[in-house]
């Protein structure tokens, strides 16, 4: 083991010494496992995977070009879904009734049961987390990346809201903006408030019988279900934890019966926390499990409202 002279919060550990990590990492912010050629390949303490401890500008340029390209590619689906309407001067959105409402925060300000707000939160969080990992891959340290992810995610989502502000039927939604910010900064809040890490929002989708009426699935709200997944294992008494799988969560699903002015639907179902499934610790497997954890997979479910119904398989 070797302490970094210029940074007392860093500890570099050879693979042969990894068993001693438990007694040596108290108070340290970052711990790297080294290969024989002294290149750090894994942030063991934080269960993250790295290939550099300094900024690599080739990767920075590549990542920037990729982000710009993806941003441009995402424009067309949004244009087809929302931006073919009549334009207007920039304005704020009060709600579907236009001349009255609580600036899209009120329950009756929405046509979609606020399912669109969950979509904003979900998308902003996904962007924030992915940009965080890209920043780490580029070589930014953990603290810097923890802010780069939320800030860039906020800016990308803000771009959509500003564009909405110039369309007559829409407008800049303060509620959408709030959902964006909560989603973008939720990973950072999860670090500061450990209790929040026990919750995760996931998505499942199956085309509804109304999706043919829309040009894109983005507006098929009746086919979307957002699941608030809770880590049951974290609240069990210590004596019972060994009997309950760490990867088995409980999820509350939220959907609507039709895309506009539909009835609210609530579901209860089990859910898998893929990050807790023992499928290996390789960099590839970490990425796969992290990706799978954004989605709720088909499983049996109980509909709680507006009527009770049991599904052997619910998407």
How is this structure best described in words?
With 315 residues, the protein is α+β, with helices and mostly antiparallel strands. The protein folds into 3 domains: 1-46, no CATH class; 54-192; 196-315, no CATH class. Helix content is 34%, strand content 20%. The chain has 8 helices and 11 strands. It has helices at 21-24, 57-73, 75-81, 115-138, 142-164, 174-192, 238-241, 283-292, and strands at residues 2-3, 10-14, 30-34, 40-43, 48-49, 199-205, 224-230, 248-256, 264-272, 299-305, 309-314. A 6-stranded antiparallel sheet has the order 6-7-8-9-10-11, with helices on one face. The protein has a 5-stranded mixed sheet with strand order 1-2-3-4-5, with no helix packed on it. Helix 4 runs antiparallel to helix 5 (142-164). The longest helix has 24 residues, at 115-138. The radius of gyration is 22 Å and the shape is globular.
């Amino acid at each position: 083991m070797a302490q970094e002279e210029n940074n007392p919060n860093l500890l570099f550990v050879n693979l042969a010494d990894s068993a001693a990590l438990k007694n040596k990492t108290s108070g340290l912010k970052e711990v790297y496992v080294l290969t024989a050629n002294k290149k750090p390949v894994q942030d063991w303490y934080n269960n993250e995977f790295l290939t550099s401890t300094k900024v690599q500008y080739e990767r920075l340029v590549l990542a920037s070009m990729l982000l710009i390209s993806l941003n441009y590619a995402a424009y067309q689906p949004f244009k087809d879904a929302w931006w073919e309407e009549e334009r207007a001067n920039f304005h704020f959105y009060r709600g579907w009734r236009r001349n009255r409402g609580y600036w899209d925060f009120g329950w009756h300000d929405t046509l979609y049961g606020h399912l669109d707000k969950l979509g904003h939160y979900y998308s902003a969080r996904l962007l924030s987390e992915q940009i965080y990992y890209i920043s780490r891959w580029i070589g930014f340290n953990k603290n810097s990346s923890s802010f780069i992810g939320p800030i860039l995610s906020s800016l990308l989502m803000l771009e959509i809201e500003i564009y909405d502000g110039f369309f007559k039927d829409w407008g800049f939604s303060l509620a959408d903006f709030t959902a964006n910010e909560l989603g973008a900064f939720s990973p950072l809040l999860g670090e500061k408030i450990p209790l929040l890490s026990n919750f995760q929002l996931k998505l499942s989708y199956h085309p509804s019988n109304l999706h043919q009426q829309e040009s894109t699935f983005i507006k098929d709200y009746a086919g979307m279900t957002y699941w608030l997944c809770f880590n049951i294992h974290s609240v069990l008494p210590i004596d019972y934890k060994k009997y309950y799988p760490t990867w088995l969560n409980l999820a509350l699903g939220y959907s609507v019966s039709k895309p506009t002015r539909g009835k609210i639907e609530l579901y209860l179902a089990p859910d898998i926390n893929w990050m807790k499934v023992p499928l290996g610790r390789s960099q590839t497997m970490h990425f796969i499990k992290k990706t799978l954890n954004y989605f709720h997979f088909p499983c049996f479910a109980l509909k709680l409202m507006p009527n009770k119904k049991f599904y052997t398989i619910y998407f």
